[in-house]
Write a structure and sequence with these properties.
Low-confidence stretches: none
Distance between the termini: 50 Å
Number of strands: 18
Structural class: alpha/beta
Order of helices and strands: HEHEHEHEHEHEEHEHEHEHEEHEEEEEEH
Mean pLDDT: 96
Strand content: 15-25%
Shape: globular
Oligomer: single chain
Bound molecules: pyridoxal-5'-phosphate
Length: 406
């Protein structure tokens, strides 16, 4: 069962009238519940949760996540700036990029932010620079997990330093006088069974024993949410097994108070978001029923990029809708692949009805684009008292047509 925003047809219509369509809507209560659940995974005093902000970088959401005691990771200078704007201090930000330039590493290091390198090549570049000598590296433990090849990052992928090159990390660090103070990994995104995550955690702990100066180890994210009513990830079981591994590792590790970090993105923000849009046309073409909406893949990319499933509902008045029909829901982008949901059994909506796309809070807005010269949508927060407020305005045509030089 997913934890979902409950909007009535009247509320959905009211939000669209007030803020325009399409529209991302987030629920503060659900967001806070997810933060607390992840923080409760382990009682180890130096256990920390880094929210992986690429899932949703909205500054108002980052501020809420910060008040829940989470820290953050960043993939780019832009994410660092968003996190600083939300109030995170340099020591609460972890820069874990992939294939960045030395200038980008310097951008982070100059601000006092811990940098993780993703290859021996980058470790050498960093070592040869005058940047601070404390550094972390990303291990590729050779184990992957996730919902598809595009998001499995452990094993054969471009990420991290493979296990049998860890000796070289120590050599290079020694040559440049670098201190390896952190090891991190991230094996992929969206698992609902924790075996691979825990197996990879064991590999990380084993590797960490070879580095006596560590201040933290970071097990990565990837915790899944049910998009299709699958059973939820069993957080209690994961927490219990994880805590066991943490106790074994920290008990034997030479340095006291070593930090143990998990780094979820999707798990924190997916369920708190629903994407609202408007039905513009309903038609039959060669035996298929197409429902055309304003939610193109410039607004929600996951179905097109990953063949992802998102539950869909229509807000029709009067509520309830008619008989179920097999329909294909599409967007307004000029590509035949612009399909939000194929062959769904749903009540046939009418033009003007509102559509809701569930579980849209992670990798939704953060992957939007201006393709077809469309404006990226606005974002709205529903607070715990039920009030709504704009937390990012829609793009404007002036932004789209900005002059080539200032
Ligand atoms: C994307 C990413 C995460 C978060 O992944 P989720 O599947 O959203 O939990 C964590 N760590 C790193 C290094 C990442 O790139």
């Amino acid at each position: 069962m997913t934890d979902r925003i409950h909007l009535s047809t009247e509320q959905a219509r009211g939000l669209i009238e007030k803020y325009g369509s399409p529209l991302y809507v987030y629920d503060e209560g659900i967001l806070r519940r997810r933060c607390r659940e992840v923080r409760a995974l382990s009682a180890y005093p130096c256990f920390r949760v880094n929210y992986s902000a690429k899932a949703n970088t909205n500054i108002e959401l980052l501020k809420i996540i910060r008040t829940e005691g989470l820290q953050v990771d960043a993939m780019s200078p832009g994410e660092i700036l968003a996190e600083e704007a939300a109030g995170f201090a340099p020591e609460e930000i972890f820069f874990v990029p992939n294939n960045v330039s030395l200038e980008e590493m310097r951008f982070a290091a100059d601000r006092g932010i811990m940098v993780s390198v993703d290859s021996l090549s980058q470790l050498e570049q960093y070592g040869g620079s005058g940047l601070p000598r404390r550094i972390a590296f990303r291990l590729n433990p050779g184990i992957g997990a996730g919902h598809g090849a595009k998001v499995i990052t452990g094993g054969k992928s471009k990420f991290g330093i493979e296990r049998n090159q860890v000796g070289r990390v120590r050599e290079i660090a020694a040559r440049f006088g670098l201190r390896i103070v952190g090891i991190n990994q991230h094996i992929g995104s969206l698992f609902l069974k924790d075996e691979d995550y825990l197996a990879a955690a064991e590999v990380l702990f084993e590797t960490a024993r070879k580095f006596p100066e560590l201040e933290f180890v970071d097990l990565g994210g990837g915790l899944g949410v049910p998009y299709r009513n699958e059973p939820r990830l069993d957080m209690e079981a994961l927490g219990a097994r994880l805590s066991g591994l943490i106790t074994d590792f920290t008990g034997a590790y030479p340095r006291e108070n070593i930090g143990v970090v998990v780094e979820p993105g999707r798990y924190i923000t997916a369920e708190c978001g629903v994407l609202l849009g408007t039905v513009h046309s309903v038609k039959e073409n060669y035996g298929e029923t197409y429902v055309g909406t304003d939610i193109g893949f410039n607004v929600l990319m996951r179905p097109v990029l990953y063949d992802s499933w998102h539950d869909i509902r229509f807000f029709s008045s009067p509520e309830g809708g008619g008989d179920l029909r097999k329909i294909t829901v599409t967007g307004n982008i000029c590509e035949s692949g612009d399909i939000l949901a194929r062959d769904r059994e749903l009540p046939l909506p009418r033009p003007g009805d509102i559509i809701g796309v569930e579980n849209a809070g992670a990798y939704g807005y953060s992957m939007t684009s201006n393709y077809n010269s469309r404006l990226r949508p606005a974002e709205v927060l529903i607070d715990r008292a039920g009030g709504d407020r704009l937390i990012r305005r829609r793009d404007t045509y002036a932004e789209l047509l900005r002059p080539p030089a200032p």
